[in-house]
Amino acid sequence: SSGSDDTATAGGDGSYTIGVANFTLGGPYFSGMDKAIAAEAKKKGKIEVISTDANGDAAKLASNVEDLLSKNVDAVIISGGPLESAPAALNAIKTAGKPVVLVDRKFQTGEYTSWIGPDNEAIGRQNGEFLAQKLPDGGKVAIIKGGPADNSIGLARTNGVKSVLQSKTGITLVEAPDFGNWGSDGGLTVMESLLATDSDLKAVFCENDAMCLGAQRAIADAGKSDQIIIAGVDGQAEALKAILDGTNYLVTGLNDADVIGAMGLDRAVEILGGAQVEKDTVVPSPMITKENAAKYQNPDGSF
Amino acid sequence: MTLELRGVRKDYGGVEVLHGVDLVGRPGEVLAVVGANGAGKSTLIKILSGAQSMSAGEMRIDGEAAEFRSPHDAHARGIRTVYQELSIVPGLSVTENLLMGNFPKRRGLIDWAAAHARARELLESIGFGAIDPRTLAGRLSVARQQMVEIAKALVSEPRVLVLDEPSAVLAGSDLESLFALVRRLRERGVLVIYVSHRLAEVMELATSIVVVKDGRVIATTEPARTSESELIGLMAGRRLEQIYPDRRAEPGEVRLSVHGLTRRGEFEDVSFALRAGEIVGLFGLVGSGRSELARCVFGAEPATSGQVKVAGGDVRFRAPSDAIAAGLALVTEDRKRTGLVGGMSVLDNIGLTTMYGMRRGPLIDAARRRERVGEMIDRLSIQPAHCASMRVVNLSGGNQQKAVLAKWLLAEPRVLILDEPTRGVDMSTRIAIYRMIDDLARDGLAVLLISSDLTEVLGATDRILVMNQGRVTGELRSDRTTEDEILAHAIGQAA
Amino acid sequence: MTGQLTEPAPTTTDPRGRRVPRLVVGGRDVTMAAAFITLIAVLVLVAALTADTFLTPTNLTNLLKQMVTTGLLSFGMLVVILTGGIDLSVGSIVAFSGIVTAGLVSGLPIPVAMAVGVVSGIGFGLVNGALIARFELAPFVVTLAALTTIRGLAFVYSEVPIAPEDPGFFTLGSATLGPVPVSTLIMLAVFLVGGVFLTRTPPGRSIVAIGGNAETVRLAGINVRRHVVLAYTISGACAGLAGVVLASRVGIAQPSVGVAFELDAIAACVIGGASLAGGRGSVRATFGGVLVLVLINNLLNLYGVQSFWQQVLKGLIIIAVILVQRTNRVRS
Amino acid sequence: MTGQLTEPAPTTTDPRGRRVPRLVVGGRDVTMAAAFITLIAVLVLVAALTADTFLTPTNLTNLLKQMVTTGLLSFGMLVVILTGGIDLSVGSIVAFSGIVTAGLVSGLPIPVAMAVGVVSGIGFGLVNGALIARFELAPFVVTLAALTTIRGLAFVYSEVPIAPEDPGFFTLGSATLGPVPVSTLIMLAVFLVGGVFLTRTPPGRSIVAIGGNAETVRLAGINVRRHVVLAYTISGACAGLAGVVLASRVGIAQPSVGVAFELDAIAACVIGGASLAGGRGSVRATFGGVLVLVLINNLLNLYGVQSFWQQVLKGLIIIAVILVQRTNRVRS
Ligand SMILES: Nc1ncnc2c1ncn2[C@@H]1O[C@H](COP(=O)(O)OP(=O)(O)OP(=O)(O)O)[C@@H](O)[C@H]1O
Ligand SMILES: Nc1ncnc2c1ncn2[C@@H]1O[C@H](COP(=O)(O)OP(=O)(O)OP(=O)(O)O)[C@@H](O)[C@H]1O
Ligand SMILES: [Mg+2]
Ligand SMILES: [Mg+2]
């Protein structure tokens, strides 16, 4: 990041208050993002961060943004989770004349100043390619989705996987009818049901690592660890460990909340400092396998 | 044991309802406590049983000062109470209601077989053997529930038994069982404190009588030294010459007729007619099906067969609203459960049936309603006079009963069915109610008065229908029959 | 007359005989109301003194906007609670009505689309009410099943969020009349009309009475079933309206919106002194309950309390509020 | 004798006078039980005939595993519902107990860590019960506030999931005794012991009686408050246990787990015929309710019904089930 800290701004000495509007903190990825932003602010000094949590309620997100604007923050960072868009929140920020940085989630409508996040479909494709390569003889691949159906992050990941695997001969896709709700417990139950209906699965893809970890237990309980390989997304610590340990958890796509969060805060400060910034920044999501997993293990990471 | 109250006072948040009551009860006594509605009898009893604390005064047991902080303390001293309000747990068996809190156990667990056996033994020993201890208490008739309440108080062989209006819901042989029980307890040296509005039974059972008025004991006497009318005079604070008005009925046209009405399992093939200006009594023992009949005529329950005709035409009441539209009104026997909405104001309660008819646009015509309800409060002298905005539960029992009456009178019915309208009501209020029914009949109303009180049925009506096991077994002229004759019909043994 | 004592003076006792000082104004007992207004006043005062941004116009407007959804749902919930029932399906109805409205905006005039949203809420309320009244099923389970089913239907209608392009769609949610948002005015109107309905019309009084003692009401010739259905229909209508307003305010309709909204609505009613057993509850106090909830949320945000601590505190504050309420409650 | 009608024969009428055929076996009325067992049998039969994977050992084991959490929570919920209360906080307690246990595993012996988890549930139950019994607050709001607060505390304890390394942590959740998972056996044991507790011990009977008429119980010299506290404590303990078992089964404890678990637990009780007004409910029928819910979920998955259609159907099936239940219910 550029060292715009010292640059005098209209505000004065480079000390800013930045509001963070989280759509939800109810998942490790999102709370990791929130912490990363706060940590980066601390590292920079002179930056105060006010964080809010909408508990997964779009209207509350709008209210929270309004509350932040009431407190006269200099800029707003929105961690929109699975939200498709938040027109009211964006309009309010625009009316107040403040910059807004989106982290992780790019909104489909509305005006924002800058976005930093992953390309979820690309992560999915990456996983798809990996699975295709591991299953040269084809086989059944299960997909466990997080839900609900309007969660377009999950949708993008699944679409990525599907776009690759659908064209591969010999591979059949089995979409779990029920959602895993992005948690390990959900991943476990959905996997159990899948194992009951399709005993000949060769691989499973989950829309995030948390669900994969649950699915991995279900597979282990069923004694099928040798038969079914697992692919996830996120780079959650437990998943990295499982990959490193050489289990049937083979791959995940890094979606690093620490990096995105820190970049988001830097981006906001740069904007406040008057810098010209890139509008959309895709943070690459490298594929993590046993070979490179050690590199991404971060004992201090918040996620 | 000897129980003594000295200068007992009780106030409910600043309003004193007992002003220094003195009372002595000795073993083997039946101490009757009588007084008008709201005199403070139940309050006194709650103090005796530890359910309420006194604000001043003291209690002595066998000469020693005693203080009760909870009903538990009273239990520990051998004092057991049957309260005025039924308090069984309907979802539990009779056994469980009886033995609650002291079940026989085997290896730490409740021994149900032993418990049922003990309950049966207990019920039989006090003459209530007809009750099966395994049935759910809620399935029993109100009378039987009351008997269970009494049995409950006797589980632990009390030294003092307090009964608050135990007879209000009993009749016939159930009542006899109760009297026999009280006498046996007395012989065993138990002190029985007995509250009742039925002065005849007080005269029959009591060894001494305490008259309470406005929170004070105004007289202590014995049956041998007083009379019913003297007691009534003491309670009311004035002389009462006549309880029942003179009836000189000149019945008009038929207002309501019932033909072969049957509701399977409840009553069968009931036929009768009510004429304008007539008061017809409906007598029967508890469970003879009178209330069910009334509810069915009123459209609250469907009939299996038979017809109801109003002013000649056949009608089929699908719901009470149909009956009301045809000019009927039903004052039910249980004002708490079916007569009042306790949490609402007197105004709302009295205006309930007529609210839809009293509109201005979409709104209730508040001024007119207030006026009409006010008239009713005046006419029935519901106390206190400014009660319209009070919650109806804060009225005393008798006044609540009047509020129910007011609700139905406001609907200006042509046929009025009264189911036990004087239950738990003190004598002066009763007299007021009899007057009023009489006045209404004189104005052309047809009245059906259901009652378990023989003197009431005889005194207040022109004609009496008697029911036994769901059938009408007799029709008698009130001025030409006797209590014995009515009873004979009621138990199905008339010639 | 009889030995009837005069009615208690302006004091009352709780069951254990302690005194509760009473406040009577113009013959009405206003103890509860006074305590409640004091509570809200204290909250506002504390807020104004400790959070310097609290009294800014922006924040006050925020407050007004933020109470709309909870407010609308709470009024409907109150009506249902008064009958002794409960409506857990309101959050799902909010989602359904919003997504249907947003979906129809492209083909229909905006007011018509919005009307359809409200009508869908009415429809669901009717079904809830009919099941509960006609078959005497437990309201908790019927509306719990409805919660699930209607949520599913919202997704069946559209799996993805719908963001109408037409700026007219946003008007309802963002327009203001002077400093006051139109949506807030709509909610206030609902409370006003609703207050008159419950206190001054026959159906309103019937609904209150049914919660007190349904059998008495039936025997008084009032059709209990019809009024129970009416209550759930009102709740459905309020939820439908809330869904439309919310979608318009957020600018996008999501089928997943509104999870757990019912809990806040119920909390508002109970904080306002309503009894879940039915028959007791007031429109004004429920509005007070909404205010309390919105104030708590707003303050915790203004103080910058950490998200998880916010949850911890919110729960504790609600307990504290109902404890304060309780010491002022008149027990019957 | 008097003109007393004989006690009702083995038929009864519902309020509108229709007859309900009754089934009396050995003096006990088993109408409800028979209807319910038939219902479950029909569900199982339909499942076995239409879904060929239903009767496979894997699926049957799944069923056994999947009923554990709902089962444990439902028993605790039943105890609370019997007193006339409700416990909305169980889902949050599941999360708290799980994450605390997982957090402690690294420092403490596993059984001790698990005991701490259960004890934390007991503690929360105690607080819920104390607030409800001592201050006579509405159970709905107290446990709703607890839901929020305890969820917050779970996140305060750890924002991220905790996955203990020690394989001993998984034993409880994954060990089997023959074909039956140990966790299922634990749940069955809770139901068995719980059934004995509720039907054959004085505190159990007191809890049932309190829901029927608390004042009577008080007048019988039984400490009502203590028993209400006991009921919530039992619910808390069950939730704590469920949290530990779930964490052990999944292998990872998450602070976000358990949202809306309370709804399934309540539904199971009501499907089993429990009355939310208290005093009525059976342990066996509640277990039946759990079975019904788990079967519905399992079947919808086996048929591969799309997620949101699953929601739609689940709601409709629950309505259908309580409709069937209702026609067999004996009203008192
Ligand atoms: N909890 C209470 N709070 C306020 N006043 C009360 C309360 N309980 C009773 N009272 C008042 O105390 C007075 C005495 O009531 P009590 O119930 O003792 O009368 P009673 O003699 O038993 O009458 P009844 O014959 O109608 O049963 C009445 O005026 C009543 O309104
Ligand atoms: N709420 C009830 N629950 C169960 N059984 C009832 C109930 N009410 C009445 N019964 C039963 O129905 C039968 C007829 O009762 P009903 O009330 O019609 O008789 P009644 O002659 O009016 O007697 P009562 O003097 O008790 O009013 C009785 O056997 C009674 O036990
Ligand atoms: Mg009394
Ligand atoms: Mg009767």
Distance between the termini of chain C: 26 Å
What is the typical, i.e. mean, pLDDT of chain C?
Answer: 85
| CATH architecture type of chain C | Orthogonal Bundle
Query: Kindly, what is the distance between the CA atoms of the first and last residues of chain A, rounded to a whole number of angstroms?
Result: 22 Å
What best-fitting shape of chain C do the alpha-carbon axes yield? Answer: globular
* DSSP strand tally of chain A: 12
Beta-strand percent range of chain A: 15-25%
- In the predicted model, the low-confidence regions of chain A spanning at least 5 consecutive residues are 1-11
Give the % helix of chain C: 55-70%
CATH class of chain C: Mainly Alpha
Count of separate DSSP helical elements of chain A: 10
Domain unit count of chain C: 1
Organism (chains C, D): Planotetraspora silvatica
Protein name (chains C, D): Ribose ABC transporter permease
GO molecular function (chains C, D): transmembrane transporter activity
GO cellular component, one term (chains C, D): plasma membrane
Please outline the helices and strands.
The complex is a heterotetramer, with one copy of chain A (303 residues), one copy of chain B (495 residues) and two copies of chain C (332 residues).
Chain A: E1 16-22, H1 28-44, E2 47-53, H2 58-70, E3 75-79, H3 87-96, E4 100-103, E5 114-117, H4 120-134, E6 139-144, H5 152-165, E7 171-175, H6 184-197, E8 201-206, H7 209-221, E9 229-234, H8 237-244, E10 249-254, H9 257-272, E11 280-282, E12 287-288, H10 293-296
Parallel strand pairs in A: 1-2, 1-3, 3-4, 4-5, 5-11, 6-7, 6-8, 8-9, 9-10
Antiparallel strand pairs in A: 10-12
Helix pairs in contact in A: 1-9, 2-3, 4-5, 6-7
Chain B: E1 3-12, E2 15-25, E3 30-35, H1 41-48, E4 56-61, E5 64-66, H2 71-76, E6 79-82, H3 94-99, E7 105-106, E8 109-110, H4 112-125, H5 142-153, E9 160-164, H6 172-187, E10 191-195, H7 199-205, E11 208-213, E12 216-221, H8 228-236, E13 254-263, E14 267-275, E15 279-284, H9 290-297, E16 305-310, E17 313-315, H10 320-325, E18 328-331, H11 335-339, H12 346-350, E19 359-360, E20 363-364, H13 366-379, H14 397-410, E21 415-419, H15 427-442, E22 446-451, H16 454-460, E23 463-468, E24 471-477, H17 483-490
Helix pairs in contact in B: 13-14
Chain C: E1 11-13, E2 19-21, E3 24-25, E4 28-29, H1 31-50, H2 57-82, H3 90-105, H4 110-135, H5 139-157, H6 168-174, E5 176-177, E6 180-181, H7 182-200, H8 202-219, H9 224-250, H10 261-271, H11 283-302, H12 307-327
Antiparallel strand pairs in C: 1-2, 3-4, 5-6
The complex binds adenosine-5'-triphosphate (ATP) (2 copies) and magnesium ion (2 copies).
